[in-house]
Every structure is written in C-alpha cells, then in structure tokens.
Amino acid sequence: MTSNEQTNPFREGLSSRPMPQPCTVVIFGATGDLTHRKLIPALYNLAADGDLPSSLTVVGFARRDKTDDVFRKELEDDTRKFSRQSVQDELWKSFASRIFYHRSEFGDAEGYKSLARRMEEIDAQFGTRGNRLFYLSVAPSEFEVILENLNQSGLNKSPTGGWSRVIVEKPFGYDLATARALNTVVNNTFAEADTFRIDHFLGKETAQNIMVLRFANAIFEPLWNNRYIDHVQITASEPLGVEGRGPYYEGSGALRDMVQNHLLQLLCLTGMEPPTDLSADSVRDEKVKVVRSLRPLRGEDVAANVIRGQYAAGAINGKNVVAYREEDRVNPQSMTESFVALRLNIDNWRWANIPFYIRVGKRLPKGGTEIAVQFKAAPQVLFNKAGSEVGANVLVIRIQPDEGISLRMQAKIPGTALRIEPVKMDFHYGTSFGKASPEAYERLLLDAMSGDATLFARRDEVEQAWTFIDEIENAWHKSPTPPPLTFYPAGSWGPKEADEMIEKDGRAWRRL
Ligand code: BG6
Q1: What CATH number does domain 202-439+459-503 carry, 3.30.2270.10, 3.10.180.10, 3.40.50.2300, 3.30.360.10?
Q2: Is the dihedral of CA 120, 125, 131, 133 positive or negative?
Q3: pLDDT digits (tens, 9 = 90+) for 174-205
Q4: Which is the catalytic residue, given 36, 200, 231, 262?
Q5: Does any ligand 1 atom lie closer than 6 A to the CB of residue 169?
Q6: Which CATH superfamily is domain 20-169 in?
Q7: pLDDT tens-digit profile of 209-242?
C-alpha cells in the first residue's frame, strides 16, 4: 500500500478540519508524570508539526511552589527525553514562552479566582479569545473539588463567548455507582458536549484505522459476521509489572485498569455496525450498542468465562523479577488480578454465537496489542479434506508495536509437489507511509481543542461498560464461593486455566 493523502478517506472524513482556535490549556496536576511524559511532549510535537495556533498557551496548575522559569526548564528536560521528535531550541523557546505556572491547592477558592484573572490577562496578551481547555490529570479523588471550584469561579464558562471544555483522565469511576456520581459532578459543571473522557487507546493510529479498514474497503464488510468469522481474539500484553503504581493497581486490577476501557473500546470498534455518518454521536451510538449487546456474565458464568491471574516470581528477558505480592506497596496477600482472560458473546444478529476472546496481562513475555479476526476454514473438500487440513485465514490488526495489518492465507510452496503453507500479506504503517504516527495524546488533544469528541468515551458508554464489569467484580469479590485467583510465573503467557478455557472450545491463543 502507498500513501495518498489526497484520497485517504480517514483524512477526508474524520480528520480534515481547520486549525483549532487559539486557546489556553490548563493542566491540573501539572507536576505529575503524565504532564511531563505525555501532555507537554504531545503539545510540543503538535506545535512542531504546525498543527497548533501560534497563540496557544498552557497554564500548569499544581500545589508545589515554583516559578514559570523553573517549570519551563523541568518541562524542557523531560520533553527532550520523551518527545517523539527531537526538540529544536528555537521552537522550544517560543513554545515555552507561552507556558505558565499557577500555584494553588485544588480546594482553594482564591486560587481559582486568581487563575481567572490570570487567564483574562493571557486572553488579552495572546488573543486566546476566552477559549479554555481544562485537563484533569489528577487522582479521581481530586476531580470533584476541582470541578466544583471551576463551577463556582465561573471558569467553566468562557467570559467572552468562547468555549470552555474539560478532559478527564481515567480511571473514570471504580464501578457503576462511582462512575454515575462522577458523571453527575462533571455534567453539573460542563455540558456533555464539552466533556472529553480520554481513553488513550482510541488515539492510537491503528485503533483509528479499524473503522477505515472495515468501512472504506468493500471486501471485508460482507465477511464481517458470524457466517464467515470463527472467532475474534483481542490481546494486550505487557512485560512491565506495576512499576511503582502499587496503591492504584491494588484498588483496580487488570479488569478495571484495561478491560473496562481500552479493551472494550477495541471490541466495540471491531464489532459495531457502520455508523450513519462520522459525527461523534453517530459513531458512539453504534459503539454503545455493542456494549449493550454483551451477554452479561454473572454468578457461575464468571467461573466458566473469565480467568483471573496474578504473576508469581519469574524472569522477563532473562532478568529475574519479583512476584506481584512482593511489589512495592502491594498487600503480601493481595487478591488483585494482573491478568484476565474472558470469553464474551455479543448477542446480536451479526455476532450470534461468535466468541470474542480477550486477554490482557502484565509481566507477559512480550509487549503487544492486537486484534485477530479468525475466519472459518475453507470447506472440507479439495485441499481441506479431513486428514490434510489447511489453516484458516486470519486478519491481524496490530495496534502496537509495529502498527499495521496482516492477512494470513494459504499458498502453494513452489516446486513440483503440492504442498501448502500459510503466508502473510503485511502492511506496516512505518514503511508504507514513511513517517512516524503521532502519539495518541497528540491526536486526542488536538481533537478536544477542535471540539471533536469522536475518539472520547461518552457518558452512556462508560456507564454501560461498568454495568458489564461490575457483575464480574461482584462474582469475584462478593460471592461466597468466588472463582479462584490463579497464578502464573512472570515471563509466561498467563495461567494454564486461560489456555484451558479457550482449548475447551477447540481453539488456541495466538502467539504474539
Ligand atoms: C494504562 C494502564 O491505561 O494503559 C496501564 O493504566 C497500562 O496499566 C497502559 O500499562 C498501557 O498503555 P500503552 O499505551 O502503554 O499500551
């Protein structure tokens, strides 16, 4: 495949839009990791690619005392470390001259009043027209106090007829009840249309490409159903452990951390019906229908269809690593799962009786996220006669690393004998387009500035996903006879029970 930006349907449909209006991005939690590793490098890269208005300003809001200059220097050091493109001195200087630091407690009303005054000055000096994007990069326990203060200080409304929006980072709630409560607090301050719940998987290039693959090519959609597809496997594997996030992860586990959001989003993009158009609501209407059609897993269904695992000590790339229970600030008797495998069914016409297997885990041997669509085998005649079976077609959408798509098919090995072997037709983003994909946060920040919520989770999507996940959590943690937590050595592909679950169906997990 070759690049052709003029006729690329993705660019014409989802992405072609004018430069966002000048605005101020206010980051709560400005001294945190996400700001330093992702948000500021993303804004810098957008600026370097000419995608931002030159008057864009950034205000970092946090509790520690520091000057604008110290803040800029810290951001510069980290942007040099984490940026996708190397930092150019002149460009950084001009970008950084529009970054400011605002010190305040999150609950101090005075801090918001002085922020409002400061933003008016910024509007006057830089022509940002009262447009503001608030980014809540803080622990969920801080959301409410920040939102209430934004409301009371009037910062949630632009003083000059511009716009005011909020981006909320995950975790978006802990269960359905907390997600609903949080949604109510958010929507008391910002209209749903101005609320952007970020799921960074949706900003990944290949995740966005799922819709293009399905709806801009005529050959896949006729096959994309229970007549031709045998099953779908979605895998997200990470060699990393909890990496110092013990306290957060202990209250979360793999199901809440990855499945409720990222993995169900990938499932929706894979399983949804074609939307009527590419507007944010049309796309999200279709995605929420998929979650609504998930067959609920409750009580005994959970033991049969969900395997939870936790890593024991083992080795990753030849290096010994400790068990989950020995990680920093993790309960030595923890029952938190670092791995989960699920067998799901989408009970609608398209997917009736087609299982979707999902697998996600930490301390697995290799990092990779992919969606594998396994087609049914060719009829049992000719080359596929019993006794000489040839494999089925598999379409693999690689979300990361090495983003791309491959199709496995059968081919004759050259020679006089008739021997058949699987071969791959492979598309790699890197080589086909000759340029690096933007980071997920670049795309998502730009979309929020442009008011495009297509790649953000809507309130009903989030709540519906929790409705599904809560039943599983209840079976694990509230049932008198919960299904067991299983263990796997770090560096293996998860507990043997996960293999047994899929093998009972006569299938096997793919090797990444
Ligand atoms: C985050 C999870 O949302 O996604 C992490 O909290 C996980 O536990 C991460 O490691 C994976 O994202 P990526 O982009 O590194 O695959």
Answers
A1: 3.30.360.10
A2: negative
A3: 999 999 999 999 999 999 999 999 999 999 98
A4: 262
A5: no
A6: NAD(P)-binding Rossmann-like Domain (3.40.50.720)
A7: 999 999 999 999 999 999 999 999 999 999 999 9
